[in-house]
Specification:
Length: 113
């Protein structure tokens, strides 16, 4: 389950921010997760408490915002919604589209005290 290592990386980023901004506690971690990405939101939620135990993120809430997939069609030069990796353009059928959104995981926001 690679979600554990992804969360360890996110908590590492939170620790780095704590050193820069000098806060004592994190109450909420907000992530933006692309629908085309390789992380499962339910798996992230499932293992968050275990990964956060003993860190500055212990007791924090994990909030995940899902980001829709989007791709650029080089044939008809339009940005189109994309439901799957390597999908075809719904307008002209050209495949694959160049992914422009929805394939990443980002630490979007922290609520701290």
């Amino acid at each position: 389950m690679h979600e554990v290592s992804l969360l360890e990386g996110i908590i590492g980023l939170v620790e780095d921010e704590r050193l820069k901004q000098d806060f004592a506690r994190v109450s909420t971690i907000r992530l933006r997760l692309g629908r085309l990405g390789h992380a499962e939101p339910d798996a992230l939620r499932f293992c968050f408490d275990a990964v956060a135990r003993g860190t500055i993120a212990e007791g924090a809430t994990l909030d995940i915002e899902m980001i829709a997939g989007e791709g650029w069609c080089t044939q008809c030069c339009r940005t189109m919604p994309l439901a799957e990796l390597y999908g075809a353009c719904p307008a002209c059928g050209h495949a694959p589209l160049r992914i422009t959104a929805g394939n990443d995981l980002r630490l979007a926001e922290l609520e701290v005290a």
